[in-house]
Specification:
Strand content: 5-15%
Structural class: alpha+beta
Number of helices: 23
Distance between the termini: 28 Å
Number of domains: 4
CATH class of the largest domain: Alpha Beta
Number of strands: 10
CATH topology of the largest domain: Spore Coat Polysaccharide Biosynthesis Protein SpsA, Chain A
């Protein structure tokens, strides 16, 4: 909340906080920022709480924010002149929803009505995902160059606030009270976020029945249902939903991407490649609730996979490099590239391509190449790469020693690994010491949870390495059950 309040301190003449029963420091922090704080008894109705806040406002304009939303720094200079225009009743700005595990990862953007004149006939409706009614469309100006950043959809935030179960309780009640397109849509999206795909598809199919095509959220019904079908491996249905949606919204890149993905999963690779390239050529627009990666790095990763399956290995390599250039924090893209192409393109060429891509990002590319090689099971090659790298920075030297020790340990050279890690520090190093200690003395004793996790990862990687060695010796059919068990374990570990 302090970050949210700081973002509006130069724009808002009056700050009103409605507290719906917090048990932390919300009220104290709000008052320290000079906000007027009002209490409201929570009744599973966001609109009721928001409308109560509007009744307390005395200003001419209202900007409404949640505590996990932050206005961009340049908002003041762009918005201030607009607030003096008598012809305007509302202003839409660009909402940026951060998705996944971090704010540096995937994001969804769309225009949303966040500012409006303080008039008694402009009020919110709906228990959740509330909608503002009354503002005439012809008096609303779109400002796509003003961003509002929303952190509430990040995985850690959702889990810590247990938003999913709270939202489901309210939405299930709302679909009972008012079972219309919007209620079924919201419930379907919530089920989708919870991984309950059959229930999600059922709700979204109901939302599509007689759905007016001109509503701001209508395109996302098609997107959500197509996503659901893909998760259920119903790829033909997903492609059909995307085709129907694109007839109504031909500029919606997300539907084009999902249609291509569905075709790819049906091994219709040339058609999928054509659609993926169409995604890249489509102009970016704020007219839809659109995910940035659906016309960015995810498209290039999918193209890399398609070209690999088509036997077009140079194009696959270039696609992965393009994907990484758009998402340079995601080393996993390079790991997938190496793991997929190492059998058909010399490892030296892959390493050279990685080093060039990483050099453009900055930092010590050689060490990062070694990390990717280690991550993909090329431990001997990783060691060779590390032997030619001599950083002067003590922290980098520590990282290099750690990577060398991992390679040695996973190659079964435990004594050599143990000799390297004597002076290493940190939970990773302790995990590595535990790993080598187990092989030497067959016992473990953890001091921290991080240490346990690091050791578990090393054991898991060594287990995979042993399975690979066993497969080469005895054939793959012997290890089917073991591979299934490992995959289940990975899924649980990642969750």
């Amino acid at each position: 909340m302090p970050r949210s309040l700081l973002s509006v301190k130069d724009l808002a003449a009056e700050v009103i906080i409605v507290d719906t029963g917090s048990k932390d420091e919300t009220v104290r922090i709000a008052r320290e920022f000079g906000a007027k704080v009002y209490s409201f008894s929570w009744c599973d109705d966001f609109s009721a709480a928001r409308n109560y806040s509007l009744e307390q406002a005395s200003g001419q304009w209202i900007l409404w924010l949640d505590a996990d939303e932050v206005l961009a720094e340049d908002a003041l200079q762009i918005l201030s002149p607009l607030l003096h225009r008598p012809d305007l009743e509302g202003i839409r700005i660009n909402m940026v929803n951060f998705l996944g595990n971090s704010a540096g990862g995937d994001k969804e953007t769309y225009l949303f009505l966040k500012l409006f004149r303080n008039r008694p006939n402009y009020r919110f409706v709906r228990r959740i995902h509330e909608q503002l009614l009354g503002v005439p469309e012809e008096a609303i100006k779109n400002c796509p160059n003003v961003n509002c950043y929303h952190y509430g959809y990040l995985n850690l935030v959702k889990e810590s606030k247990q938003k999913g179960q709270r939202n489901l309780t309210i939405l299930e009640q709302e679909t009972t009270e008012k079972p219309d397109n919007f209620s079924w849509f919201n419930l379907g999206v919530e089920y989708l976020g919870e991984g309950r795909f059959h229930e999600s598809a059922n709700c979204l199919e109901k939302s599509l029945v007689n759905l007016p095509p001109n509503l701001i959220w209508s395109p996302k019904v098609y997107k959500a249902l197509a996503t659901c079908y893909i998760q259920l491996s119903q790829f033909n249905q997903a492609a059909e939903v995307c085709r129907a949606g694109l007839e109504l919204y031909p500029a919606y890149t997300d539907l084009c991407y999902l249609q291509a993905l569905a075709l790819k999963e049906q091994s219709m690779l040339p058609q999928a490649v054509g659609l993926f390239h169409r995604c890249l050529a489509m102009p970016q627009t704020t007219s839809f609730m659109s995910e940035e990666s659906y016309h960015g790095y995810r498209v290039w990763v999918a193209l890399g996979q398609c070209y690999l399956a088509l036997g077009k290995f140079p194009q696959a390599l270039q696609s992965y490099i393009e994907a990484f250039s758009l998402n340079p924090e995601n080393i996993g893209i390079l790991a997938e590239m190496v793991g997929s192409l190492a059998k058909v393109i010399p490892l030296e060429q892959l390493a050279d391509s990685m080093e060039k891509a990483l050099a453009a990002r900055g930092g010590d590319s050689a060490l990062l190449v070694a990390r990717v090689l280690t991550k993909t099971g090329f431990y001997e090659q990783g060691l060779a790469y590390l032997d030619g790298f001599s950083p002067s920075n003590p922290e980098l030297r520590n990282s290099l020693t750690y990577l060398k020790a991992i390679c040695l340990a996973l190659l079964g050279r435990v004594a050599d690994a143990a000799a390297l890690i004597t002076d290493l520090k940190g939970s990773q190093a302790r995990g590595l010491k535990q790993f080598t200690a187990w092989f030497e003395h067959n016992r473990l004793a953890f001091f921290t949870a991080d240490e346990c996790v690091e050791t578990a990862v090393l054991f898991w990687l060594r287990g995979l390495q042993l399975l690979k060695e066993g497969t080469n010796q005895f054939g793959p059919e012997v290890f089917t059950e073991a591979a299934e068990a490992f995959n289940k374990g990975v899924a649980i570990f990642e969750k």
